[in-house]
Amino acid sequence: MASVNIWKRLLALLLLGSATEHNCTSTMSFVKVDEKSDFSYHNLPYGVFSTPDNPRHRIGVAIGDEILDLSVIKTLFTGPALSKCQDVFDQPTLNAFMGLGYEAWREARRTLQLLLSVNETTLRDDVSLRSRAFVHQSSAIMHLPADIGDYTDFYSSRDHATNVGIMFRGKENALMPNWLRLPVGYHGRASSVVVSGTPIRRPSGQMRPDPTKPPVFGPSKQLDIELEMAFFVGGGNRLGEPVPIEKAHKHIFGMVLMNDWSARDIQAWEYVPLGPFLGKSFGTTISPWVVPMEALLPFAVPNAVQDPEPLPYLHHEDPFTFNINLTVSLKGEGMAEAATICKSNFKYMYWTMKQQLAHHTVNGCNMRPGDLLASGTISGPDPESFGSMLELSWRGSKTIELGGGETRTFVKDKDEVTITGYCEGAGYRVGFGPCKGLILPAL
Hints:
Blueprint: H1 2-16, E1 46-51, E2 54-63, E3 66-69, H2 95-99, H3 102-115, H4 121-124, H5 127-133, E4 134-136, E5 141-143, E6 151-154, H6 158-169, E7 185-187, E8 193-195, E9 200-201, E10 204-207, E11 216-219, E12 223-224, E13 227-233, E14 252-259, E15 262-263, H7 264-270, E16 284-286, E17 291-292, H8 293-296, E18 300-301, E19 321-322, E20 325-331, E21 339-345, H9 353-361, E22 372-374, H10 389-392, E23 400-403, E24 406-408, E25 416-424, E26 429-431, E27 435-440
Parallel strand pairs: 6-22, 8-16, 9-27
Antiparallel strand pairs: 1-2, 1-5, 2-3, 3-4, 6-7, 10-11, 12-15, 13-14, 13-22, 14-16, 14-17, 18-19, 20-21, 20-25, 23-24, 25-26, 25-27
């Protein structure tokens, strides 16, 4: 009976319009949330965690410093889209939940907003249930949020593509002829996508530092970071059936931060004619919390002006670019504190996520729940907003100052790189938590 009443109250809230994203504040939850916390009541991101006393992987939602264990409260999801699918919250990954589709995601979010609201008694006043349902984040071990079947990396920042083009081809030929016509991308390696905090081993491979001599083999000397974001595909599409751009948003579950590590010297020698391979496939780091798209919609900004106008299958006018503040910091071995090396923003992207998904599937390619599609390096118009060390050091021709006499051109062993990102509201944030990786020496 209690669960039925929850759904009735949720329905009433929706009809009154009081559960909208714009009218909520952090104080609307009975869970204490600092206004600088990434995980406000507006956010409610999904992740997969375990604890030392319970190693089972389970799905949780972050709020403040707490994680709400959805496996404990799964019977409280009693709406029409979830009442017969509650077992998706008992799974060790988000794939099954993602696969339920757009209406189920919306219903789950509304239910969570109600259960966590300051005036709802179901969780707030049940001491026994709360003790079982909440875990402090400091006690949790985070895991990959999904079983990633396929991973695609795009190249959708015009500033980044222009910078790299100038370095390698000159200013007159910076952008290739196709770049302004379609979202350029390549298929990455899903098996080496790891969760934040997982060390990354410096890769070895073939390089040709002297173009007049044969290639050499050894550890990469130009190991780089790439500031990126990525989205998880939710409801998929059948083989042979494209996702039209008008419906693309219904297939985009949520976003994470990403560091797509890159061995520039290995990549430079191998990428012609088929593109990135060993220089990219050794490791990709993502943040553990998946921020749902509904939490980001209040921070949508106008899309980039695209000239020439894209072909009809890529054309959309609704804003689907987001004002997400992004920062990259680097802490070397022996450094007292990390140094900020980049401040950028997701709003600088040229091609939108809807365009990326529509283009990826226009040939009939089938997406599956848990597939990961990345933005490519996010660079802005100013040097401080360049999202790779390749750009920050301008191909190694100048040093990146870290303070205390420390400099870099590329990443050294024992360097720890951290990406953070958040949207800023009135007294609250919608953030992603850290995306961290420590570089280990080559074997």
